[in-house]
What does this fold into?
Amino acid sequence: GGWKGEPMRARSRRTRRSAIRIAVATAALAAANTAVAVEGPVVLGGDNFPTFGMLNTATDELEGGWLAMQRELAYVSPKVGRVNDNSVAVVGARASVAITEDAGAAIGRAAARLGLPVTYHDGAEAISTFFADLRSGAARPRVIWIPGNSAFNALDAAELATLSAGGNDATLATFVDGGGGLIAHGDESVYAGWLARIAPGLTPTTGAGLGLALTPAGATVLTGVTPASLASSVWRSSFAGNPNELQVLATATNQFEADGVTTRKVLLAGGREWTTPAPADLRVAVASPSVVDSRDVIRYELTVTN
It folds into this structure.
């Protein structure tokens, strides 16, 4: 009605300009969602905590690497900004009631002590389904947990390959970039492919050793984890390059391979601490008539996707 009495050519130009403005805005929104740098919160470790930990049946407390995992989750969970169902999604392990050396049990017991429910996605097919559900919004975990590949009930070769197959690495990066939490353990093969999307410039290195030492930042995050328990903990990999402003929580105290590296960063943590939910992932699509005649009533359909 606002265009009544205007020449058809002017109306056509206005139609085109409106469509162009919306198209530009849509492109800008899409571009904003392609960022892959760490937003957080994350803990990335070359550790072997799922193996070197246990449940003390006398005290019902977690010890060693399992206590470290509980503290990691307590660090990550409150910082999550992504809308979620409060769950921890375990990628590559099944539920277990074991009391030591079992990745699924370690994760389940750590989460239970923080009141967080756990969903398990075990096997390459189940992992593929989980990432498809993450893309569609059917899965809305608070934290994704990648259990490494050395403990019992952990990632196998097929599951490792699935982490970066079919766009799953990009899905994981989008999850973290939007404020989702991530905790991972294991050697360099666990981080192959997807780490470059989460933290460009951060590279997992080959090498292993016995013994970890907490930095001052690590002592703050991993409260109650004793130096003695870390001294007997095997590490499987470390990280080189730009840590993307991540804090170093633990360094290696010994190594099996004499390669000249003096300080190995084995455990990193950080990312943004969200005080409000992450910005909505908004997109706008426009549908309008391609041909407009004089005195036509024009219907525009704007579809906003969150």
